Amino acid sequence: MSRVLIVDDEPAILNSLKRLLRAVPCAYGNSVYPLEVETFDTPAAALERAAHAPFDLVLTDYRMPVMDGVEMLRELRRLQPDAARLILSGYADLNVLVSAINEVEIYRFIAKPWNDYELVAAIAQALRNRDLMLENRKLADQARVERGLMSAEALEAKRLEALEPGITKVNWGPDGSIVLDPEFQDLDKD
Amino acid sequence: MEAFVWDERFVTGIEIVDTQHHHLVDVVNQVGDMLLGGDAVGESELQALFKDLADYAVKHFADEERLMEDAHLDPRHAELHTRHHKDFVQQVVTMWKSRATMKNPAEVVHGFLTAWLTFHILSEDQEMAHQIALVKAGKSASEAYELWHREVDSSTSVLLHALHNLYNVLSVNSQDLAESNVRLEEKVAQRTSQLTTANRELAAEREELKALLKKVENAQNQLLQSEKMAAIGQLAAGVAHEINNPIGFVNSNLGTLNNYVEKLLQVIDAYEQCEATAADVPREKLAAVKAAADLDFLREDIRALLAESQEGLGRVKKIVQDLKEFSHVDEAEWQEASINDGIESTLNVVWAELKYKAEVVREYGQLPPVRCIAAQVNQVFMNLLVNAAQAIDGRGTISVRTGTEGDRVWVEIADTGKGMPPEVKKRIFEPFYTTKPIGKGTGLGLSLSYDIIAKRHCGSFDVDSTPGKGTTIRVWLPIAGPKE
Question: Which of A156, B37, B168, B349 is most buried, judging by how many CB atoms fall within 10 Å of its CB?
């Protein structure tokens, strides 16, 4: 199951995308990617969720109140650097495109109104691309360990870091205490 | 005015001369009477009578001159006499022509005619008659001339001579006067023609200025139109976003619906097969088909899908309608328009620009219809709303209020944006003045808004701004429109 996060301030868009991805199989070449879709109508809610659950791919609108799509992806990349990033927008301004590509390295920019087939294909390609990249990295690291360039501990730390960014670093307070990340503090309250 | 009375002393003894003198006296009296009649007498009648008088005088003089010639009178008398005839004719014609400029022409013309004839008949004609009589009695012409001059007593002769001179002086003077009158008239005519030319030039210049003014007006209108197009161009991205969103999901929903319908048809096919083969079709098979079609989900989702799509298309329709209403493309220029409705459609058109920047608070008062060019007034509202949104960094509030005061309505657009310092505030209506980055504003929005409100609609602006707090702009419009 590939986990997909979709953000748009327009609930009707979210509904239509959910329908689409439920009905149309997401396939690239021989590999089929069954999807598990979660949708949010504010970037804040999406980021909150992304702080706790990993996603393989994020598809977001650009123009949203409070926070735009590029800002949200910047934040999301900090949380989940390996999630593929796509923008789906009816607002195709050159400045937006430039910042989306240069600042948050999106994989695709899809214009609204979109073509269903192209959208599904873009998602499949992005997932496939991500798989390849992760596999490459894994193989390279294995090669490094085998050739003694990397310790098994470092490899494991890297794996854990990829799963949960920041997990291998400790935030020391001035008095020697350990400072917890804000999101975990929130969790405590819950 | 005294009537010209015939006097026995006028008798010369020559029958033809006396008869003609009698007639002249009568005609002179007629002319006098007519002149006295003033406006009541037609100009053409007067002219005719005067012509009779002149013709008759000329004929009479000719007769007298023939008499003198036949009698071979002394040239000293004959020449002088003939010259005086000529002078008289000229004099009287001049006087007649210039009578319109006289204070009372009846007195003057009649007086002159009377006096001249009296003097002439008593002196020269009497002299002529006498000399003719002497010549007939056998004297020579020169003897007759000298005898007469000896007979007449010296003081009378001197007096007559002096009178002749006086008359000559008068005649010369009035001749000069007449000539200078003619010259004056020529001058007046010249001046008049100069004035006419100057007037014509002025009129031509005026026409030219009018044409130029028309051109300027046209340019102004074009500027207004192009500013509107520029503003709409700026809005186009936002409007496109507003339209692309619903079109995006409606389009995708239709694709999904196609998929759903296929599945439903499969279910129906299965049921029809059941009907055809009747009775003992395994229930499990039907259930399997239903499960494959995900019928329970479809039943729920199709309704939502259709409702959402309908709402989306409704939204597109509304945006197009608002754009049309905003621009009032298919309506007359001046109309009785609802300002609140105009603001509402303008708000919808610029909604894409506003909704990510601000919350819009509407506080509309009850407004009467206002006589205005709605498309232009809406353009002003659009400028103010877009400016308000652009003044806000992050997120703020835009309040739109309307109300009536006396014979005017007001519309107030207040933002919680960054506000303006006084030096910016006092320049906002200047053409090409802008504080926006290049490409974001033409610098003409408010300048043209001012034109629309102040010049075309006789309204006004109140601007209130505090740096860091926000700006409030109030537009005033007369309900009855501008006074024509």
Answer: B349
